[in-house]
Amino acid sequence: MSNSTLIRGGTVVTAEREHRADVLVHGETIAAVGEGLEAPAGATVIDAGGAFVMPGGVDPHTHMEMPFMGTVSADDFASGPAAAASGGTTTIVDFVIPSPQESLLAALDTWRGRAAKATSDYSFHMAITWWSDQVSREMAEVVKQGVTSFKYYMAYKGAIMVDDGVLVESFQRVRDLGGLCLVHAEHGELVAHLQDSIFAAGITGPEGHPLSRPPAVEGEASHRALRLAEVLGAPLYVVHTSCRDAMEPIGRARAAGQRCFGESLIQHLVVDDSVYRNTDWNQAAHHVMSPPFRPNGHQEALWQGIADGTISVVATDHCVFNTEQKRKGFGDFRKIPNGTGGLEDRMSVLWHLGVGGGRLTPCEFVALTSTNAARIFNLAPRKGLIAPGSDADLVVWDPGKSRTISAKSQRSRGDFNVFEGMTVVGNAAVTLSRGSVIWQNDTLQAEPGRGRFVPRAPFADYARAGQRRFDAAKPTAVKRGG
User: Which single residue of 23, 185, 214, 352 has CA 20 to 30 Å from 177?
Assistant: First the structure.
């Protein structure tokens, strides 16, 4: 029996161009792209007439079965990637988060065990939650094992937050290893102060959450991380940029030639802070995430950042907690587990509002949902491309397919959806992961355990560019007469 598939009659869309072409898959990889390709004997033929054929989505910001705030996020490496497949996403990059004082290598082993049941491919970032000579040594081994990006939480005081001293030492180490730094940019000390002050003032419900994390605390941390990275010559990726205050420093740094990238979340492009004033506590609490949803105006600013290139990636920070878990913070907003979902809806919502709304071209859509992340995180050319030799991670995208988003019909294990009731036009008709159909006819065909870890090489170009900037800024001794 043939292990070939021919996707026939579609319009291939990459980050660079649209063109009519067939895509031939042999086994797990793309064999050919062109017009009039012949199907080998026994090959499966998928009719893509009237549809687009695009690279499978890459979401570089997810949290599967993540221990956090006294509970564990609801989706695991089986349910989360399966839900993602229904929306056209075929690769996720999740976060290994060691407990303070825990070995990085031990934590990586734990996450590998959790990911053994993955339904599609995945990679990892490594969080740095403490600093010592041991951490510095283990970072080199982590890189050898194919994890080349390192995450820093500038918030969550008393848990996983790191201070500027750790940032300085570790940014330099990442630079020397050829890695990429990621930051959750919020001023943790200020957030903790505001949380306690607001709670003491009698504001205990979810409405206290955005008050304790105003745009300025995100803007300050974004600016600070960028300046530290600039001085040290380290490449930097700022995750979940939610507001104008945090985005503008990224734009200025990029304009000045700094190696940095901005990421926004599909949720922040759509939802505003009015959700926290919902009189239904459960509804309001389900929107508690960090950074929080912002006042009207910031959403438009993020769309402008996408248009001008400040925002390179649209991700999800998929970290789902159910109602029972959210209610751990009933009476104290500081204890509501932070997180929302979005994996299965990211691409359809962005297509509907972006391409359908005249804000994006299909090529720009592919760049934001797949190719840019694949290139930034060294997953390309294996992921994010439609080219011979690349993994056959593909989505047949029906631009006329309509559905109404609802928690009742979603594949995620979450019992809430921040896009509830939104009708989106443009959805995945067929999703292939390494040549295997895992979503078709509104039916999941993903098998737990078929996903594979995707190792990533160090970022040689980033390292060279960062080292040049660092060397150029080094002081030189001044010779003086005696």
Answer: 185
3-state helix, strand, coil in the chain (%, to 5): 35, 25, 40
If you compute the radius of gyration of the chain from its CA atoms, what whole number of angstroms results?
22
Closest CA to 360 of 5, 4, 15: 15
Residue 151 dihedral angles phi and psi, to the nearest 5° = -105, 140
Helix axes 164-177, 215-232, angle to 10 degrees: 50
CA dist list (Å): 27 to 2, 44, 115, 123, 227: 9, 11, 23, 21, 46
Give the pLDDT confidence of 61-83 residue by residue, as tens digits. 999 999 999 999 999 999 999 99
Q: How confident is the model at residue 224 (pLDDT cuts 50, 70, 90)?
A: very high
Q: CA end-to-end span of the chain, whole Å? A: 86
Evaluate the CA torsion angle 265, 350, 249, 14 in order and state its sign.
positive
Which residues make beta-bridge pairs with 18? 13
Distance in angstroms (rounded) separating the CA atoms of residues 206 and 335: 10
Note the pLDDT tens digit of each residue in 360-382: 999 999 999 999 999 999 999 99
pLDDT band for position 2 (cuts 50, 70, 90): confident
Kindly report the pTM of this predicted structure: 0.95
Picking from 334, 360, 338, 336, the residue whose alpha carbon sits closest to that of residue 349 is: 360
With beta carbons less than 8 A apart as the criterion, state whether 346 and 405 touch: no
Q: Where are the domains of the chain?
A: 55-386+453-463
Strands 423-433 and 436-440, how do they pair? antiparallel
Task: Name 173's Cβ contacts closer than 8 Å, sequence gap at least 6.
Answer: 136, 139
Residue range 55-386+453-463 in CATH 3.20.20.140: yes
By CB atoms closer than 10 A (0-12, 13-18, 19+), residue 164 is exposed
Q: Is-cis flag, bond preceding 381, omega within 30?
A: yes
